[in-house]
């Protein structure tokens, strides 16, 4: 399955935050939205980073409670690895597993078009396996 197919089923909504937002504000939004990461975009809408629960925990471990007053750009992951619409679920599962990444922004050229999580990919693989099993059962039953 291609990522564009997965996004068409899941939806293209992406929550973004500003590099100037405080870590406390981003933490509250992560909790409210029930997501694990936000894409960080500048005033022109360009992707400049990604901030995840892991980034926040790391800042808390290094700096302590003062990290909550820091700006997101101070703790975000700046070297963002992205997915493209034509990539496969399998290739991204491998990439995310190898790099220990849980969230990937999906880009179409320079435009942010979605975000996928490792959970989205695993859910897709389970659905594919269930479909294949049902198809085989139907084939065997008909034979």
UniProtKB/TrEMBL annotation:
The CBS domain, residue ranges: 7-70, 76-133
Q: State if Protein transport is listed as a keyword.
A: no
Keyword Hydrolase in the entry? The reply is no
Q: Which UniProt keywords apply?
A: CBS domain
Source species, domain of life: Bacteria
Pfam families reported for this sequence:
CBS (PF00571)
Q: What InterPro entries has UniProt attached to this entry?
A: CBS_dom, CBS_dom_sf, CBSX3_CBS_dom, Diverse_CBS-Domain
According to UniProt, the name of this protein is CBS domain-containing protein
Natural source organism = Asticcacaulis aquaticus
